[in-house]
Amino acid sequence: MGMLIAGQWCDQDDIIIDGAYQRNLSNCRAEIEPNDIIGYPGRFHLIASWSCPWSHRTMLIRQLQGLAAYVPLHVTGGKKVQGYAADHGNSWQVPGSQINILHLHQLYCLNDANYTGRSTVPILWDSHQQKIISNESTHIMQIFEQLVTPQNSHFAPSQWVPSHLKEAIEKLNAQIYSQLSNAVYRAGFAQSQAAYDKAVHSVFTMLDRLNTRLATSRYLMGNVVTQADWLLFPTLVRFDIDYYLHSRCTMSKLTDYKHLFKYARALFNMPGIADTVNFGAIHKSNYQNSQILPVMPDVDWSN
């Protein structure tokens, strides 16, 4: 995958330890005043990828909060040569500057010339100060969740994490991350049978639990959509066309889970949500270095 070491690109990185995939922690995080985003439309930019589930989380909240007029979206993509291409192999002008880059890791170096780490998405970029505010999806979501605009003024700041559900949501979010959303990558990147078996067992145990939960509950927390649903959705929408095929999570497909698939379709068909999903880009991202693009699995996401 490659990473930056003291500002220099290196084709090797340290994601595999003892045969098991270890996700590196996102390490760019600064606090900002929510009014800076609303008061200066276009100052902060969300840089994301259609294929990345962590990016998708932030795109969902941006869409749901009606922030398109305040936070421009730039979608990276293209063949990965030195990590993410900045703009499908084209030269891309960094917002707020006269600098053009080809690789996303160059943006990290603009933020910190001696940066060490992986150049990941999503990124919340401050075009005025020319710095990365955050590259951690949950942090970006939390920033967006607090923003009040004329378009979403009917929402309370706690819309997605109601105070009486906060502890339960945080507990479930942690379980979904460790046992499913990150576990599919532990399965896909595993280099030992033991690491793979452990990851796959975790994935399908969690899917079974969620399917059972949703047999008697409309959403994860009952009849109200919360942050937990939007953290889970990116993994579900990718499961059959990505994790089943490419992460070797082949015990079952999402479509085999009656309640879980019905729930995922219900979220997908909420206003504006389909606009955050690009099935073709998700599928194609796994074949960037192949001359053949296999037929994408045919899944009906309509209600």
Describe the structure.
The chain is of the alpha+beta class and 303 residues long. Helix content is 38%, strand content 11%. The chain is built from 10 helices and 10 strands. It has a 4-stranded mixed β-sheet with strand order 6-5-9-10, sandwiched between helices. A two-stranded antiparallel ribbon has the order 1-2. Strand 5, helix 2 (53-64) and strand 6 form a beta-alpha-beta unit. Helix 7 (193-213) crosses helix 9 (258-268). The longest helix has 21 residues, at 193-213.
Low-confidence parts lasting 5 or more residues at pLDDT below 50? none
Radius of gyration: 19 Å
Strand content: 5-15%
Oligomer: single chain
Classify the secondary structure makeup into a structural class: alpha+beta
Question: Average pLDDT value?
Answer: 92
Number of helices: 10
Widest sheet, order of strands:
6-5-9-10
Total beta strand runs = 10
Please report the distance between the alpha carbons of the first and last residues. Answer: 38 Å
Helix content: 25-40%
Give the ordered list of helices and strands: EEEEHEHEEEHEEHHHHHHH
The shape is: globular
Main sheet record: 4 strands, mixed
What secondary-structure arrangement, pairings included, does this model have?
Elements (H helix, E strand, L loop, with lengths): L2 E3 L2 E3 L5 E2 L2 E2 L12 H6 L4 E6 L3 H12 L8 E4 L15 E2 L6 E2 L2 H8 L11 E4 L4 E4 L2 H9 L20 H16 L1 H7 L3 H21 L13 H20 L11 H11 L10 H6 L19
Parallel strand pairs: 5-6
Antiparallel strand pairs: 1-2, 3-4, 5-9, 7-8, 9-10
Helix pairs in contact: 2-4, 2-8, 5-7, 5-8, 6-7, 7-9, 8-9
